[in-house]
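Students often ask why we bother encoding 3D structure as a string. The short answer is that it lets us treat folding as translation between two languages. Here is a chain of 120 residues written in the first language.
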Amino acid sequence: MVDQLKKFTEQLDLSPEQRDKIKPILKQTAEELRKTRRDAFKATTGILERMEASISKELTDAQRVRFAEMQAQERERRKQWMSEKSKPRGDSVRPPGSNGDEPPRGPSPDRPAPPPAAMP
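And here it is in the second language, the structure alphabet:
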């Protein structure tokens, strides 16, 4: 939000009055986006967990063990990717929703989606 307001101020030559009116708009939008991302993350997690449970029911015991290993590797890969992508870049402020206590969620213009996992 701070970066956007600064960018708008510089590029649009905003007056102090305009900045005062635009700042709460940016703040409200950031909060709405945070909530939307949080809700989408929860929904996505639930969908994936149901898929994994359904697949697991169709596997043999040996396949189930391998499937669990694959899931653990994928979770580790995502964790690593999120850790790397959540590091601040230069002097920029972290994007909304990546305040350190929540992992970043989904792709954004400055944070592309993680690469697909390789299947053995």
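Translate back mentally: Helices lie at 2-12, 16-57, 61-85. Keep this in mind for the problem set.
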